[in-house]
Amino acid sequence: MSEFRFDVVTFGEMMQMFVAETPGPLESVVRFAKRTAGAETNFAIGMARLGLRVGWASRLGTDSMGRYLLSEMQREGVDCSRVVCDGAQRTGFQFKGRVTDGSDPPVEYHRKGSAASQMGPADVDEAWLRSARHLHATGVFPAISASARAAAQKSLAVMRAAGGTISFDPNLRPSLWASADEMRREINALAAQADWVLPGLEEGRFLTGEATPEGIARYYRERGARLVTVKLGPEGAYYDGVEGSGHVAGFPVREVVDTVGAGDGFAVGVVSALLEGRTVPEAVRRGAWIGARAVQVLGDTEGLPTRAELEAAGL
Ligand code: ADP
């Protein structure tokens, strides 16, 4: 039995998402389907589906959206004991458009001043963090407000001091930051606290000034990362870690329905496999397989496999 209560914990904002049922500009769409969104909660759901013990810390309103999101997370088996539901605050939501050409769909956020963006360092329960073996963080939560950023910085510092491992997915959201320079500086400072850093190629280029996957990986390895995986879309991913470097090919995809969620699914595959003691190439392969599933569905989480599906695929 593990000495830890959780295999992994994460902080972040969950939003109700309205996904367009038809293509075209959002203002002309009449029918939307209700889903959930949030980089960290996508990750938490994926890990829980694989049977890992997952905890999530956040704030929600007590409006219908907050009640929906909380019940979805509980249904997925994620521990929500550190989710504060506050009747005085509103739950964030977003709209996502539909595209037919495999490009990134338009997304419109309504999250400014949301319950989760009111979180701050006082929301970081240190004992709860230390009850987990691993912390997963992304660049989204620190982008939603200055107090959330302070909470993210504190949670990474606490986990590092406790000796747990940390994974970090930059997940850039330029529209949430005051400037590109600030985004680059803050995201790189958080990445420097992590053991495993998971940038995409384009965001890695922006963050490091390096052009190639090798250069991007080197940049973070020189700043302390033990493993860097650079996501390459249909081409799979490049990895560079203490045990060596290499490339894992992408899994073939019939039709790209929606690219959102691929990076979160990739993180689920890599982090779950590493926590289970798999080798880095095995972990990246699992990540690439889940990423390829994620682009073939409309929502952000319906591509995330169960343990049985993972085993059936030999991963
Ligand atoms: P991000 O959205 O974080 O930039 P990617 O779009 O590169 O991440 O997707 C994450 C992973 O999902 C990739 O590394 C790849 O393994 C897989 N993936 C993404 N898009 C495709 C695709 N069109 N075909 C096959 N695999 C894909």
Structure description:
By secondary structure, the chain is α/β, with parallel strands linked by helices. It has one domain (8-306): Ribokinase (UDP-N-acetylmuramoyl-L-alanine:D-glutamate ligase, 3-Layer(aba) Sandwich). It is 35% helix and 23% strand. It has helices at residues 39-49, 64-75, 126-130, 146-162, 180-191, 201-208, 213-222, 262-275, 280-294, 307-312; strands spanning 6-11, 15-20, 32-37, 54-61, 79-86, 93-96, 107-110, 132-138, 165-169, 196-197, 227-231, 237-241, 244-248. The strands form 2 sheets. The chain has a 9-stranded mixed sheet, with helices on both faces. A 4-stranded mixed sheet has the order 3-2-6-7. A hairpin with a 2-residue loop joins strand 12 and strand 13 (244-248). The longest helix has 17 residues, at 146-162. It is globular, with a radius of gyration of 18 Å. The mean pLDDT is 96. The structure holds adenosine-5'-diphosphate.
- Estimate nothing, just give the exact number of structural domains: 1
Number of strands: 13
Question: What CATH architecture do you see?
Answer: 3-Layer(aba) Sandwich
By DSSP (H or I, 4+ residues per run), the number of helices equals 10
How far apart are the first and last residues' alpha carbons, in Å?
24 Å
- SSE succession: EEEHEHEEEHEHEHEHHEEEHHH
- CA gyration radius, whole angstroms: 18 Å
Mean pLDDT value: 96
Gross morphology = globular
CATH topology: UDP-N-acetylmuramoyl-L-alanine:D-glutamate ligase
Reading side by side through the largest sheet, how are the strands ordered? 5-4-1-8-9-10-11-12-13
Percent helix among the residues? Answer: 25-40%
- Structural class designation: alpha/beta
Percent of residues in β-strands = 15-25%
* The CATH C-level class name: Alpha Beta
Bound molecules: adenosine-5'-diphosphate
State the low-pLDDT regions, or none: none
Q: How would you name the CATH homologous superfamily?
A: Ribokinase
Major sheet, described briefly? 9 strands, mixed
